Structures are given as structure tokens and as C-alpha cells.
Amino acid sequence: MAKKEEPKLDLMGNWAYAPAPEDSKHIHLNKKYDLFIGGKFVKPTKGKYFDTISPSTEQKLAEVAEADEKDVDLAVKAARNAYDKTWKKMPAKERAKYIFRIARMIQERSRELAVIESMNGGKPIRESRDIDVPLAANHFFYYAGWADKLEYAFPGRNPQSLGVAGQIIPWNFPLLMAAWKIAPALATGNTVVLKPAETTPLTALKLAEIIQESGLPDGVVNIITGFGKTGAAIVNHPNVNKVAFTGSTDVGKLIQKSIAGTDKKITLELGGKAANIVFDDAPIDQAVEGIVNGIFFNQGHVCCAGSRLFVQEGIADELIRKLKDRMDTLIVGDPMDKNTDVGAINSKEQLDKINHYIKLGNNEGAEIFQSNCSMPKKGYFCKPTLFLHASQSHRIVQEEIFGPVLAVQTFRTIEEVIEKANNIPYGLSAGVWTDKGSKIFNMTGKLRAGVIWANTYNKFDPTSPFGGYKESGFGREGGLHGLMPYLKF
Ligand code: NAP
Ligand code: MG
To answer: Which residue has its alpha carbon closest to ligand 1 atom 31?
Structure first.
């Protein structure tokens, strides 16, 4: 008789889960990806390519074209041509059919897209499968519905498209950010030149394949890859009518400067440093889950991550104890494993930045706690980290870290926590945990944040507008509001 295998214990003495890796044999990646311009995949004029890797294995996945100014010009010309000759003239209900078709095709290829998203970006497959990809499809569905109803959305205002939209996106939600940008642009009758981030180009290129297969007229969507210089060339191209950017506040400021004095329309979705506020009447266990979801979800690579925790004094000890216990159970590791809670940090550069902040937090005098989890030997990983007794002047409290690092402060009164929560250059999002509806409404009126969750965190829906105050940018994406930046009246 075969010997029964003893179950394995993890570092905490709990039963360890057996690995449950998602299969990746069903996906296909080319060795080399060209630029998607005018409905075709074309070689970059200078013939340059760069490697894209998996941050969890550090292995090369494919080579991707590097677009220079000439390629950007070709893409903008293709978009302009498609705008003038086809897209602008097409009845809105016909435009809608293409957008619906893209949504359906994303659904049909959801498994493949989720696997590639996790391989290239490092996020757990559970997230790419259950959040990123379904939401990306939903954005296309939602905006497809608006395409022939713009007159109802803005009655009596005669909404008109702008022309060519230049769109630049970050690496934290590669496919979802592409959907947030492309879907409303198409629904409002604009054409697109989109650039994904240098570390996560693959799902945008898969989307290019989907768009090609969908039969969308050539040149309506162009997807070009490259570095920051490629992004700058899109922003500065004289024939681009609208710039939509999601990324860091520093680059957002550069972009705003460079388009000053032109008539380009612009939306900027920038960084954040959200306050997650827990009152002493909150359901503590639920709040602990919300805190974990708010900062460790997607390795803290979320612009609206709840990276500052404010706990009311009376429950601080209990909540912190429960939070530490919960952190010890988080599984950090292979993004392709369905058990994984915290995947890989997107790049070596980002991991270095996070580690720099962890050192800084220690030097600033906050008390560090890191979850007692096992760590993979290869790849870019970071332990979920807490800083207790952080103070308002600490850099770990003021600056966006964009990693699984939470700075904790306590408070006594509502006035105090509002003052502290708002005392920051950012204003993207916030969370409030309390049993009292009146307290929620009081807080939402006074917190300077574009999105406020109550007794939940990090929930997204295409029907709901999203965007920031202050240095978190301006303009809204999602919902009816998300149509406006792509229209003139
Ligand atoms: P990033 O460095 O600003 O890059 C964003 C995009 O801009 C990338 O495609 C990048 O290309 C490109 N880029 C770089 N320099 C440029 C320039 N001079 N002109 C035009 N484009 C340029 O940001 P990231 O590190 O990728 O993303 C993290 C940031 O995004 C965080 O600050 C986060 O808060 C923010 N974010 C905000 C939201 C929101 O909705 N508010 C959502 C998600 C993320 P390369 O990648 O090739 O350098
Ligand atoms: Mg860069």
C-alpha cells in the first residue's frame, strides 16, 4: 500500500494549501510583437524591439516593438484618416455594434487574457480572472450602450466627437485601463492611438488582435508600444485632439505643461494616498478584510489603494491584533496559483522603490510589522508590511509608495481624522467604516476624495464615475461623466 503523504505545515504551523496553478498551455504568445497601426501589425521604422518579462519568474515572454516619433506619426495619421473617412460618418448604432463585439470577444477569450495579464504583470490569477478581465468587458458593454444615446445623455447640447484621442496607460491594470480609455472614446465617435506601459504591453497587444478580428474599420484603434518617449511623442503630436493619461503625478504634470497653449482636451488620472478610516462602531472583522483588500490587493499597485489607515483609539489594539493575524495568513507567491493572495511586484525598479520606502519608514521611527509568510526564491516579491505609530509628517504617510505597505495612525474625533485625511497633496479615494449612516454622509461631504467607499473597499463599476481631486488629477472616467471628456458641445 502506498504510504499516505503527510500534509505540509506552513511557517505558522497551519496546513499549507497544495499548489493550484492555472494552466498556461492554452495561450499563445508570439516571439515578437509589432505595432498595430491602420488595422495591421507593422514593423517599427527603426526596427528596434525590447524584451518583456514575467516579474514572478524573471523570464522573457516576448519581444515588443519600440515606436519612435515616426511610428507615432504613422499611427496618428491612420487614426485621423479613419476618423475623417469612416468613423465620424458612421451612424452611432453601427459604431455600437463594433464595441459590443469587442466586449463579447473579450469575454470569449477571458481565460487567455487573464493568464497573460498575470504572467506579464505579476498579479494573482484570481484577480485578473475575477476582476480585471470581466470589468474590461463590462466597460465595453456599458459604453456600447451609450453610443447611440448621446443626445439623451446630454439633451439639447448637440454633443460632437473631438477627433484623435492619444491615450497613455500605466502597468497596474493593463487591460482594464485600455478598456477605460478605448470604450468611451469609440462610443463618442473618436479614434484612438493608445500606448500601454513598457512593462505590461502583452494584453494590450492581445486586445489589438481582438480589435483586428472584430472587423473594426482599420485605423480606428491603433496600439503602439514603447517607453516614456513614445508617450511624450503622442502627447506632443499636433494632430492629436485629446490626451487621456493615467499614471504618476510627476508625468501628469509634465504632460499638462507640454500641452499648455494648445487646444487639446485633457484628462489626468494620477496618484493617490487614500485614507481608510475605521470608527469604533465599525464591524471590526469586516473592516480588517476591507483593509487587507484595500492595500494588499494587487500588491498595493492600485492608485486608490487604502495606504493610510486611521483607526479610532478605542478599537486600535483589537483591530491591529486582528490585522496582524490576518496578514500572517496571506499567501505571497506564484501569480498563476489560484491560492495566491499577493503576487509579484511589477518590476525590479518598483520593488527597489518599495524597499526604499520600507527603509525610510524604519528610519523615520515608525514600528514595522511584516507578515510571517514564506517568500518565493525567484522573482520580485514584497512582504505585506505595516507601519504602526506613523505620523502625519512621515514620508511614508505623505508619499505614494504603490506597494503593499500600510501606514497606521490612530485618532479620537471626527474633526481630527478629517483634518488628517485631507492633509495630503492627493485626493483620489477614501474608505469609511462605521455602523452609522449619518456618519458616512457627514464624512463623504468633508473628505476631499473623488471616490469614497463605505463599509467596503476597492469596488469598481463601469456605471460609476472615477477620478481625483488635487494632485490626483481631473476629469472622470466611467459612467455618464466618462463620456464628457471625449465630446465638445
Ligand atoms: P508613469 O511612470 O507615470 O507611466 C504611465 C504611462 O506614461 C506609461 O505608459 C509610461 O510609459 C508613460 N510615460 C512615461 N513618461 C512619459 C512622458 N514624459 N510623456 C508621456 N507618457 C509618459 O506611471 P506608472 O509607474 O506606469 O503607474 C503608476 C502610477 O499610475 C501611480 O502613480 C498610480 O497612482 C497611477 N495610477 C492612477 C490611476 C488613476 O485612475 N488615478 C490608475 C492607475 C494608476 P513607460 O511605462 O514606457 O515609461
Ligand atoms: Mg517608464
So the answer is: 248
Cβ neighbours of residue 415 closer than 8 Å, sequence gap 6 or more: none
184 and 240 part of one domain: yes
Name the phi and psi angles at 376, rounded to 5. Answer: -60, 155
Q: Is 235 in the pocket of ligand 1 (CB under 6 A)?
A: yes
Q: What is the pLDDT of residues 100-140, one digit of tens each?
A: 999 999 999 999 999 999 999 999 999 999 999 999 999 99
Whether the CB-CB separation of 466 and 451 falls below 8 Å is answered with yes
Q: Going by CA atoms, what residue is nearest to atom 30 of ligand 1?
A: 247
Is 364 inside a domain boundary? Answer: yes
Of the candidate ranges 3-7, 11-15, 191-195, 381-385, the one whose mean pLDDT is the lowest:
3-7
Report the distance separating Cα 131 and Cα 28, nearest Å: 22
**Residue 21 counted as domain residue:** no
Task: Say if 177 falls within a structural domain.
Answer: yes
Domain range holding 340? Answer: 275-461
| Closest atom, ligand 1, to C-alpha of 249 | 32
pLDDT given for residue 113 in this prediction: 98
Based on the domain organization, do 428 and 285 belong to the same domain? yes
* Statement to judge: residues 152 and 228 lie in one domain: yes
Q: Which of 51, 175, 193, 246 has the most ligand 1 atoms within 8 A of CB, as the residue to mutate? A: 246
